[in-house]
Amino acid sequence: MEALKLTGIVKRFGDVTVLNGLSVEIPLAGLTFIVGKSGSGKSVLCRLAVGLLKPDEGRVELLGQRVDTLPERQLVPLRARVPYLVQGPALLDWLTLEANVALAAKGLPDDGRVARALERMGLTGLKGRSPPQVGPGIRKRTAIARALVLEPTCLLLDEPTTGLDSIAAGQVNEALEAVRAAGLGAMVVSHDYAALSRLADRVVEVRQGVVGYHGDKAGLLARTQDDGRSAPPAEP
Ligand SMILES: Nc1ncnc2c1ncn2[C@@H]1O[C@H](COP(=O)(O)OP(=O)(O)O)[C@@H](O)[C@H]1O
Ligand SMILES: [Mg+2]
């Protein structure tokens, strides 16, 4: 099954056409990196994927379900299977990391899932601290642990390392490896080419409203170098 299948997506805001007939099929397994210039529509694509935005044209299928026509009531359980992590703070500063993760588990079976999620994100020894007492990489891992308690099928992460220093980014990228090792898929919007070249199972590039590249990372990295070599000389 595909994690995400977009077919002929057109998305406009006023006069601006952000996505212009974009189609892509992203498999469930492994880590898919979504790249593209700032403003190319990566976050719009994420929001379309989970039904927070509706396309003007085209179909959106998430885990085989038509997101663009699904009623909100049915979107809720689907979003629990593919949690969407946006940039920015998501934690309550006055609670411990453990309590923050436990909040997400409210109403779910009390089957040790909080401890498992903390363990998977390497947070067991830090669970008694509060968000201000740890660095941004650990805070992001806590946000991922919150998503893991839902026992999702796949994660959708929008720029999880943007704005982080290299140590914090490394902590987040380790968490992505742990996600993959746990057999979960993830779609990750990222500019972090070091992480991409190490971790990506495939890459999707959004360019000028469509998919500019879809394939393995070696192809993208080779092409990026070609682009550099064949670029026209800069204007004097
Ligand atoms: N809710 C909105 N209303 C109007 N314009 C929007 C909205 N969301 C995104 N856009 C525009 O769509 C384009 C793509 O945005 P975005 O998906 O956030 O880019 P990025 O690839 O950097 O994540 C930008 O030009 C942005 O200004
Ligand atoms: Mg964005």
Low confidence ranges: 228-236
> pLDDT average, as an integer?
92
The global form is globular
Global structural class: alpha/beta
Helix and strand pattern: EEEHEEHEHHHEHEHEEH
Radius of gyration: 18 Å
Ligand inventory: adenosine-5'-diphosphate, magnesium ion
Number of alpha- plus pi-helical segments: 8
What's the N-to-C terminus distance?
A: 51 Å
The fold-level CATH name of the largest domain is: Rossmann fold
Strand segment count: 10
Q: Main sheet: which strands, in order across? A: 6-7-8-3-9-10
Note the topology.
Blueprint: E1 2-13, E2 16-27, E3 31-35, H1 42-49, E4 57-62, E5 65-66, H2 72-81, E6 84-85, H3 97-104, H4 113-120, H5 136-148, E7 154-158, H6 166-181, E8 185-189, H7 193-199, E9 202-207, E10 210-215, H8 217-230
This protein binds adenosine-5'-diphosphate (ADP) and magnesium ion.
Q: How does this model look, in words?
A:
The chain is α/β, with parallel strands linked by helices and 236 residues long. It has eight helices and ten strands. A six-stranded mixed sheet has the order 6-7-8-3-9-10, with helices on both faces. The longest helix is centred in the C-terminal third of the chain and has 16 residues, at 166-181. The model is unreliable at 228-236 (pLDDT under 50). Bound molecules: adenosine-5'-diphosphate (ADP) and magnesium ion (MG). Adenosine-5'-diphosphate binds next to strand 2 and helix 1. Magnesium ion binds at residues 42-43, 158-159.
